[in-house]
Write a sequence for this structure.
């Protein structure tokens, strides 16, 4: 969700004062101090990776293992969820950043869908649950720095966790809401780090009361990484005009795709039954097709990453095929 002042006021108004005080006390995120890892990464590039086939909007043919990783487990810089194919093989990797105040577990169905098409999906929890982020802790730039440390940690450690070969040299970045901003910040700082980037209703807010969040969009992006921007028509104060998907697409260099869902909202791709989603939907009203929104978002990410990470450039055509989408969309590309 967005970090805007108006949204902060709505959140605080929806939470009892005692709970606000409790959540704020002592919940500023701290960097975990982990013992050094003894794992030596395999620096040999993967000669090939799994190539997905079939309908991007339907679950893929692979079984998916969900692995919960604690902070400092195998020296992991953050707690995370990893969704990995259950079949032996070599797989490209997608790093997904959660949104403002969101939990990585709230995206499980969407990320399982992506993984079932032949990707290892890593979803870190960037800061603990609570309201500290309302007051600028951590800043988006600090999240981006942590994401860079996670990327550096991936080689070797994903292999050990999943039991399959993680081809981390084939890496895609993605994120929802402020997580989209974090993904773009990483690529702005290190353009060579990712082969593609996807923003799910991304938001480039300035940070509300403390104003700690510098914008990532200060003009056209200077890098050309294939970019997918998914936007919603009902984003409202959660994805406010002037700081939302429109600006991310406009700032992106070619090739880029902009898929807008007029009838859905900012939190509609989250799992319906996940903890905290009720509050998210209250603060960020949406539309009736949450299952369709999850299928659409997951399928579009599959198409982008199948084309860029798995090497099937024909999959790019799925990003402009509005007729095949499970719910109504408008599409532009450049």
């Amino acid at each position: 969700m967005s970090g805007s002042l108006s949204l902060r006021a709505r959140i605080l108004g929806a939470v009892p004062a005692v709970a606000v005080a409790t959540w704020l006390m002592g919940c500023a995120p701290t960097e975990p101090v982990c013992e050094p890892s003894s794992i030596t990464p395999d620096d040999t590039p993967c000669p090939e990776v799994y190539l997905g086939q079939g309908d991007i909007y339907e679950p893929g043919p692979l079984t998916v293992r969900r692995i919960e990783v604690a902070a400092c487990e195998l020296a992991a810089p953050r707690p995370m969820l990893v969704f990995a194919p259950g079949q032996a093989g070599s797989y490209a990797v997608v790093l997904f950043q959660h949104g403002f105040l969101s939990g990585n577990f709230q995206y499980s169905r969407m990320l399982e869908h992506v993984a079932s098409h032949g990707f290892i999906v890593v979803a870190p929890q960037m800061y603990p649950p609570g309201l500290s982020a309302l007051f600028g802790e951590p800043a988006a730039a600090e999240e981006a720095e942590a994401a860079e440390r996670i990327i550096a940690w991936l080689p070797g450690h994903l292999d050990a966790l999943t039991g399959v070969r993680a081809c981390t040299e084939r890496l895609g970045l993605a994120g929802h809401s402020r997580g989209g901003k974090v993904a773009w910040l990483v690529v702005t700082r290190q353009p060579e780090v990712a082969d593609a980037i996807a923003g799910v209703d991304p938001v480039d807010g300035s940070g509300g009361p403390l104003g700690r969040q510098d914008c990532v969009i200060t003009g056209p992006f200077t890098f050309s990484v294939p970019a997918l921007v998914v936007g919603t028509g009902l984003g409202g104060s959660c994805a406010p005009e002037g700081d939302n998907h429109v600006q991310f697409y406009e700032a992106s260099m070619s090739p880029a795709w902009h898929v807008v869902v007029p009838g859905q909202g900012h939190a509609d791709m989250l799992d319906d039954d996940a903890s905290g989603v009720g509050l998210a939907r209250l603060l960020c009203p949406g539309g009736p097709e949450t299952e369709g929104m999850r299928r659409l978002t997951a399928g579009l990410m599959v198409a982008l990453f199948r084309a860029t990470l798995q090497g099937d450039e024909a999959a790019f055509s799925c990003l402009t095929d509005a007729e095949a989408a499970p719910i109504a969309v408008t599409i532009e590309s450049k």
Notes: The domain at 5-14+48-333 is CATH 3.40.50.1820 (Rossmann fold).
